[in-house]
Amino acid sequence: MTQEQKRIKLAEAFGMTGWEEARALPDYFNDLNAVHDLRAKLTDRQREVFSHYLAYSELPDEGYIGYIELPPIDAFDVINSPADVQAEALGKTLNLW
């Protein structure tokens, strides 16, 4: 899936409609403010999954978060993740790709 297709999927997942071209969408992979706007809409459970994706890239048995032993998350690395890493984690959190 191309980054452009991922931008469209993220926008649709968060209810964005009415855009005609992908150029009109926020650039989630390069704009931390755009990613922040999406993160603010996550549920508590989605935030937990999102944080683990940021910390680990991939989750073992995603449905078992909280029931499996994971190493502690480095909060500094999570907080300072670049936009492209956060956008990728959002897509994985929402099972968009």
Describe what you observe in this structure.
- This protein has 97 residues and is mostly helical.
- It has one domain.
- It has helices at 3-13, 32-39, 44-56, 75-79, 83-93.
- Helix 2 (32-39) runs parallel beside helix 5 (83-93) and helix 3 packs across helix 5 (83-93).
- It is globular, with a radius of gyration of 14 Å.
- The termini are close together.
- The model has no long low-confidence stretch (mean pLDDT 82).
In short:
Helix content is 49%, strand content 0%. With 97 residues, it is mostly helical. It has one domain (3-93).
Strand content: under 5%
Q: Report the sheet with the most strands, covering strand number, pairing sense and barrel closure.
A: none
Please state the structural category: mainly alpha
The global form is globular
Low-pLDDT stretches: none
Order of helices and strands: HHHHH
Distance between the termini: 8 Å
**Rg over C-alpha atoms, rounded to the nearest angstrom:** 14 Å
For this structure, the quaternary state is single chain
> What is the tally of helical segments?
5
Q: How confident overall, as mean pLDDT?
A: 82
- Helix fraction, binned, reads 40-55%
Please give the number of β-strands: 0
Features:
97 residues, mainly alpha
Topology:
Layout: H1 3-13, H2 32-39, H3 44-56, H4 75-79, H5 83-93
